[in-house]
Queue: 2 jobs
Job 1
Amino acid sequence: MATASPDISPPGPYPRHRRFSLPRVLTLAGGTFTQLVRMKVFYFMALFAVAVIAASFAFADLQTDGQLKLLKDVSLASMSLFSMLFAIAGTALLIPRDIEDRTLYTILCKPVPRLEYLLGKLLGVVFLIFISLILMDVLFSAVLFLKEKSIIAEQINILQNRQFASRELLEANIAAVSDAVTGQGLTWNLQNGVIAIFLKAIVLTGVTLLVSTFASSTIFTIMTSLAIMVIGQAQSIARDVLLGDDASAVPRLIAGGISLLFPDFKGFDIVDAVVTGSAVPALVMAKMAGLTIVYLVIHLMAAYVIFSDKEL
Amino acid sequence: MNTVRPRKWLMAALILLVGGIARLPLEHAFSKELQTHRLAEEKINLSLRDELGQSFFIAVIGGFRSLVASIVEVENLDSWQEQNWAKVDAAYSLCTRLQPREYHYWDFRAWMSSHNAFDYYLYEDMTRPGLQPWIRQNLVDHAIKVLKEGMEHLPDDYRLPRSLAMLMADFDKNRDANHFEASQWYYKAWELRPSLRFLRRNYIYNLARSPGHEIEAWPLLMEMYNSGPDPTSDRTATGMTLLVQLYPKVKAALPETTLPPELAAKAPQILARENARLDREVQQRQRQADQLKELEATILKNRQGSPPADSPQR
């Protein structure tokens, strides 16, 4: 009795391996995000909540403007600090941890280009910063809104129980309360400050990723990235020296090196202006986002060149 | 082995350099744009380093300038409670230098000088009786200087010219008070915030009280009166009083001038009420001046009777 031979032909054409695949990058990003979340990074929210709530109750002796400004200052400075810490520490830990856990070898022995690996790591950290900033922003906005409401109620109570010598004085007092609330209260413009903090953290993540591709230890990556951040805060001064006419050759050479190698972090510091109530045009925010992409592309390209055939 | 070939180092450096050259004009243009929109931070003066201390200075460089200014203000609360006015002014001076575009630092610094410190030297500190008026006027002059400096940094904020106008209209505080100058500052404030009608009314009141500007003020006061009897309109008791007071002078210069009949009917009552108010004010000022003189005389008498402060104690 003849038996049918089993079909051992391949099940069909395998999908062609793509040189670049966004789903692969997103899978790596998701893995990185989970990896960071498992490090219990979100515990920082407790600290942030304490800082914001303490700032909202403290120093009732200050004027209305002063109280609201202090709350905004503490909250936005904490957001900035936490996002910078995530950008530096989170990114600095990733590649060494992957080498230590041997995860890096498991990933790279598959047909995953090293660029995708770097992009996935970067996006994972950026996603973590994004989620953290959203959580902080929601808490900050809620506390600021409640503080603003309580101040308005208190001021209205004062105005109702006070005798004014003239109608002009009453109107001046009403205008003062209204100005304090509109100038220092919760506005959409404040969100531009949070976006600027996020964009600055993205650039810092790119810089740290570049450093971590050649760094020999995590502490080296963290220290070097911190140093780059500090130098980057003064990059605009070096740029002015480079583009000005006053400096001689040697200072200009040093200024040129700093201007060309380090990003200008000062360009992202619009939080002070936002806190004082200066309106930020949408075009400025768009240009800031564009500049962030330029920085990211440059740092990612340099990181890839170093990481592309690094012996691991 | 963590090794990178030298060729790759070179390529990475080249990417950073070429990228740097490409982004330099973008960064420069963006920086200029931030300055145009008044979003860029003011340049840091190195003298700030000594005043702030190392850690605060680093925080300022690191982009936490606003937070540092807030902390300086909070730390200053003690000096305020101790009534150490020189320290209070120094702290607010630091705040204004850190954040020159924050309105409340300028206004509060001026207020501390012209109101809190002024009242302290008026009622509490009587150690130098002969010098007190000079100290008080210096405090007012300082507040005026601070407000004018603040206006250079905040040319679009109506609140600083308003505060200055209030000081220029305050004859109790300011020896150099001047209704006309006050009216001009109120006008500037109103130009910056036309929706606030009280600024315009204050401008008109001060203009009407400025000698030689009565004819200029008359049509403006009439316009206020003609805005109607609605309580939210510009027809105010002060405006009507000024119309009645100015009428004889304006009539003398422009004979065709008339006072609205209903106002003319109430004129004697309005004038009597205003005169009574002015009398009360004059009496109150006189009482205050007498009390101060008495207090100063007592201090001087006590001081002459007591041994000098640096005499050896037994």
Note: Chain A touches chain B through 69 residues (CB under 8 Å).
Job 2
Amino acid sequence: MIEIHNARKVYRQGDDEVVACQVGELTIVDREQVALIGRSGSGKSTLLNMIAGIVRPSSGSVRVAGRELSEMSESERDRFRGEHIGMVFQTFNLLQPFNAVENVLLGATFGRKAPGTRERALELLTTVGLGDRLHHRPGQLSVGQMQRVAICRALINQPALILADEPLGNQDPETGREVLDLLLRLAREEGRTVVMVTHDPASAALMERTVDLMDLQSEVAS
Amino acid sequence: MNLFAISLRNLRVRLVSTALTALSVSLGAALVAALWSLADQADERYARSIRGYKAIVGPAEGSKLDLTLNVVLNLGDSPGVVPLRVLSELERLERSNSRFKHYAFPQVRGDSVQGFPVIGTTDLWFTKFSLEKLDTDTGTRPPLEFASGGPWSFGNDQLFPFAESMAEVYNHELLHDAAGEEGHSHNHDHEHQSYGDLVPIDWRKAVLGAEAAAVMGIGVGESITPVHGTEDSDLAHEHPEAQCEVIGVLKKTGSAIDRSIYVPAPVMLALSGHRDGSFDQEKLEPAAEDLLLSAIVLRTFDHRGADFFQRHFRSSKDAQVAWPQGEIVKLLEAIGDAKEVLHVIAWLVVLVSSLGVLVALYNTMNERRREIAIMRSLGARRSQIFSIIVVEAVALSLVGATLGVLLCHLGLSVAGGWIEDRAGIPVDGSAFLREELYLVLGLGLLGGLAGVLPAVKASRTEVQEHLTPTT
């Protein structure tokens, strides 16, 4: 479960304060699939990074799986992210020196150490239709194939939560739809919570719930 | 996948940069390893060369170091002469006290063949001189071994009778010369005996050191002709009357013996035209005991013997005793500073090459920020990013250092002959030192230290800032 209460992220620019993100109240229950929408610059990605523990909120509370992230050290948040959260990015963020299997295994390198990780990586890649692309590097894969590898990497640790930041951004609508269907299906089958940032209403419609960040901002307690 | 595998993959993906950086480390390592190897092999050679020389009896005047260098390493000219009576005195001392049992090997020097010194001595040299350590089982030291042929025969016991014959001829010639100057006409019906007549054909034999034989391309059955002095000097002249047949070639010893030619002492003593150098010129009518040698090598049975002889000859007008080990140590101390300078330069090269690791890695950090941010987003902690970069630096240095040590030994194997020709140090490219292992490990450690700065920079990468690709 994700519970956010009056969370704000503020950056300083000289004497000025820039509010990158503010959220009044938001609760996402386990296994829920939620789309975060909002206009550009509304702080969707920052909110996702706060939930991931990449960014510490300047004030307020962000609780994930019962842990208060704002009270954790950076190292603890890194460890927590590695073990409990899988991330999918708009630009896939695969590492060029590594092939598909290795990119998926990287997700496990910094996360939860479990036996049979390699077998699970092979199984995931086969499931997403990349059984014949296991040893291809990112440069040798299509855009859709790269995002599938990224989805496998997000799932390798069997995380409770998957955070996806505009996962369809670089793909044509048909491929994007296929990839999103795949992500949601796998997450549903494995019982994962999914929070996806998107600006595409059609994609948001595939999720169980849509949350507009503008609505959350108005709820922030003064 | 583990952190080590990630580090190695990162190095592989930047193959050219990795190879060039490793090469710079390897050159530094090769330089240090080569210096160590050459110094070690030179020290070993000196130690081995000295081992058989417990003491050297040489001229009363002059430098003990010069004497040692000349007799042990064939360097420089003989610093003077020692009368034969010193050899007699050594034998007398031994007879009077068995504690000072020893072997005495007389040497007569001054000539050479193609730059290799010709040493007149006795056959005791082939039976009792040894460069080897004491065999504790047999209580003996193995003598010099022959690769082909065998020794000639001329013993210490034959030296004195020969000296008597020489003295007789010498005095006869002096008398003849004096009579000639005073205008007396001595009617000699027969030619008086010359020095050359004193040396029968059986003594005109030579044994070559391994390197001398190899370089000159001369083997058993061929002959050599000594040249007085060194061949490149204006005063050099051949002694065809001293031509000797080669009857033996010694096995390689790794010492100056390899570059020596041994003939019976009379061959060198009886060279024509060298009459004035044969006997003590201060004697009006010199006797056999006044015959002049270059030096006498002593093999005593322990240091007490060497000490005794050193003390005994301290006030002698005829001779002094040098202790080669002490003299060589003095020499090595004198050149030690130069050796230190070389080592400092080598270490500076190593340091610079390690700085190269730092620079090479540091320069890649900007282009790797996104890659690092991605790993951080996957849960990599700053300490893990730090470790990945440091392991890269260590691996780079270890590979470079290992390559350098191998390169050094390959180079020494290839250039061993050339180095031996130039420096006189036999080089074995396959002889690895324990220190080289420490060098590799030390360079790995130094590389790790060089990796700290890039690693700190990498670990400070802000994830959110660098996750999105820059275009």
Note: The radius of gyration of chain B is 32 Å.
